[in-house]
Amino acid sequence: MFTIALTRKVCYATGHRRSGQMYKNNPNSSISSAKTFTLELLRDLQVIILRKRFYYCHTSHTFNEMTAVAITAAVLFLTAYVVSLPIYGEDNETCGYKSCHPIKEGLINVHIVAHTHDDVGWLKTVDQYYFGSKSDIQKAGVQYILDSVLASLKQDKSRRFIYVETAFLWKWWRQQHDTVKHQFLRLIRNGQLELIGGAWSMNDEATTHYQSIIDQFTWGLRKLNDTFGDCGRPKIGWQIDPFGHSREMASILAQLGYDALFLGRIDYQDKEFRFDSKTPEMVWRASENLGNSSNIFTSVLYNTYSPPPGFCFDVLCSDEPIIDDKRSPDYNVPKRVTDFLDYVKNMTKRYTSHNVLVTMGEDFTYQDAHMWFKNLDKLIHYANQLQVNGSNYNLLYSTPSCYLKAVHDEAKKHNLKFPVKTDDFFPYASDPHSYWTGYFTSKPTIKRFERLGNNFLQVCKQLYALTDLGPEDWADLNVMREAMGVLQHHDAVTGTEKDHVAHDYARILSKGFDECHFTSATALGKIVTKNSSIRRDPNPAPAIPFESCLLTNMSQCAFSENNEQFIVTVYNPLSRPVTHYVRLPVTDGYFKVTDSKGTNLQVQAIPVPNTIVNIPGRFSKATQEIIFMAESLPPLGFKSFYVQKTPTLIKDPKQAKVQESAEVKFNQDTGLISEIYMNGRKIPLQQAFMFYRGAVGDNKAPTNRSSGAYIFRPNGTEAVLVSEKVTNKVFKGDLITEIHQVFNDWLSQIVRIYNLESLIEFDWLIGPIPKEKVNGIEVITKYITNLKSESTFYTDSNGREMLKRVRNFRPTWNLNLTEKIASNYYPVTSKILIRDPHEDLEVAILNDRAQGGTSLKDGEIELMLHRNCLNDDAFGVGEPLDEVAFGKRLVVRGSHYLVAGPYANNSAKKSLAAQERDLAQRKLLQAWTFLSPTNGSTFEQYKTKHVMEYSGLKKPLPDNVHILTLEPWIGPNYLLRLEHYLEKTDDPILSKPVTIDLKEIFAAFDIISYRETTLGANQWLDQNQRFVFNATDKILSMIDDGDDFGTGNYGSSEADDDDDNYLVKSKSAWTRGAKYWRRNQLETNRINANTHVAHPVLEHDLHFAENSSITLNPMQIRTFIIDIKMVKGKNHT
What we know:
One of its GO terms (biological process) is mannose metabolic process. This protein is of the alpha+beta class and 1133 residues long. Among the domains are: 326 residues, 7-stranded beta/alpha barrel (Alpha-Beta Barrel), CATH 3.20.110; 81 residues, Glycoside hydrolase family 38, central domain (Substrate Binding Domain Of Dnak, Chain:A, Domain 2); 132 residues, Golgi alpha-mannosidase II (Immunoglobulin-like, Sandwich), CATH 2.60.40.1180; 177 residues, Beta-galactosidase, Chain A, domain 5 (Distorted Sandwich).
């Protein structure tokens, strides 16, 4: 009998599949390690053959001596092949800070950073950009960039290059032969090629939600770690093209364990002030709750991310090369070097240290990398020759990491200090009349589709994890992961892409929905079918074809419309019970809904308004929607309901009516809202729909800027009222009251008051917008109250912490106000609110997608809903923002949720802020409705063979704790993130730290062991070490002030002087700790020779401390890789 470790080695070497799965390579292994492994394997096999018999991959199958000889021969061949390969192993690894070229003390060190910025879709689709097709739109082919850079770097070890977009890198990597992969890996291991950023795409920071940002970083980092190991781990945030920068993004990067963040675009006034005061580099304190753990060194690039003027040596550029043949009449070395050094001299006046970073790259440059490097070689050589004549400039190939190391070393040596920033970089303006605030709202349907995608991705990942599905479902899940990663791109969810690219983004996400639907349906089928894993029933229930209806926003669902009896299964992805109102389009008649206990629920039917019936592209016969309340849905679980059409209305007399939790009064003359009552307070409130007419110009000067996809620029200072009167129809029922409002022939709304919800929903419908001759129309809604808000309002940062905004004001410079409206617009990812401190009164609006918002007058909240611009703004898209669907201008439907009441002295169980955060989560991760047939079964027959209520948790988590992530990871490991989702000032009770026991969370599986990682799950937390920079403000200094935020204080421990300590030392956070590989991703992502598995030392990496309890502080997210064991037979509550 032999050890599990030995048999697993043999299983892997012989390529044996167990249950359709194959053990995978260790992503941190090097080729030299593979040699060592092979020699160990040979030694082990000798013992095996002598014994003539062993357990074959955990089964009782044996093999004979011929089989042993065959295995030995195969291993000998493998050994010969591996030994013949060049060694680029741990002994020769010089990546990271160890790979930096030495700088010269006493000189200005000019760090030449060669890079390309490759948009994951913009003017062309993702595939068009990668393959280089559609050159008539843009000459750009990413595959050629990577091919060309690889060839140029191999020619000279001194050259350096950085790459960012994992989506493109992964696409390229999968198409390469092993020889090319070895060459690429060598460049990464010797530090010539540095991977930075690390996310699937360079995400936008205004319209994205933090959950999706974290997810797409996690997936990108996972691929890099799997493929390139430690040397592929990014240390730098490289957000060079997003149009403004959020504080939450900086906080996320700090929690990822990154050392610094580089920015390309900040407001032109802010940039001028910072460069004049030599403060473009700063310590960004990115959270009011997390303390020093959120601090990150931040540097604003000098020229966005472009090369100095005249120094673009690319096939796409027309700048002169450096001609160093003195016999040529075009010899230009002295002039070119002088021009470059003059440029650098101006740079040095703007930065604090004696190191400056010069970006050498642009959009899709380096398709012919030889042109770049040949000229850069000359520039560096001839500039440095001048040092013998007294020049104090030293040029060197570098990377952002090496630049950072040089700045850090200098700051430490000379006690340099940097200013502190605590706000964000919104809104962004590139000139006095170009405020990039239009994209906060542009293409509102893609924004909603993306948010829905996140909702379903979390459902899909959770259901997979709760049922431990197989490799085929893993591949389906990955399609959705990658689709959502693409949608986070700063020209995707932003709505700043060409229309045909937006359609392709929708196609990509639709495919993700389709694939993930298979996964979720399979998982649900395993849970719902009783005895699905125990074959005792001679007549088991057939597989259940679950369906989802994605067109309910236009009251269309073929399944509910065409079936007279069916099952509704409502899954709750939150960690606490929720109540959800289910709405289903049906044709006519009455319906009975029965829950798992056999109780007939209240069902309310409301007619579909004509404004929805007439939406272009609606192919539905539904005339009404039935509504019922799915009450107390279990956390990470579901309830199923039996729905059946009946000839008459059925009411259960035992069910009493519930009083409405909110009230709305309407003006009898105009039909508009005049007052609301909520949380014990009456508030005068009016709602108005209005629109701005967009400015029109030739864009040749800032004063002639047009409103477009990026830019919001109204042609006046006042919005135009859509209608002074409205027609209302009221539908009052036992569950909800609806007021159907029609403002004109292209704008309508449904106002909803729920019996059990302290909120008012505004379900608006806009379009097709009429076409004007000159100006576009940009539609807004205003909520007008009598609150004395003192020029102040608050908006969320990527759906997480709230930031204070003051009208006509910037916290860090004196604002020169040139666009009174656009300059006061801010991104609203989930919430905007105003407060009256004198009356202790707050009004908040939560939305269902990212939008632009403001408060232009005290007591008002304004949100932009839909944009139609007839002119391009000349920032690259090249087409007006004029969307069409089904031959007509785009129709958009969405919702706002109004919450109001006292915010300081609230007698309710939860504070108003806590109620709002709970509501935001329930709308972000709504209960997901699955439909399935009854297959002719009666309620009793269905209940006999199916589970109708289930929870994956042993009990609900505390009200302030959220399972942010639960997903399959590798082998028996899952990825788990727990989040305290309240700020420290949100609630007197719930904002306190909370302790939970990891072992007592899940009912579907047991946690055998665990270990905490950084936020991106690519490094053990206790091995993360970040640079520290001193700040000018001692109170806000990066130096550890003793705050304790869990097991790791990011930014609180400093690297030693020894170069070895500049490397963040860590193990592979998901492979070294894995007992063995179980999942086959059905794709080749590694070099074939790199084929050894990790030693099975899980107990050394994943562990339980003496006690499995963890503490979460306000706004803290803690990330764990857990080893699990499924609990059989627990598929129902």
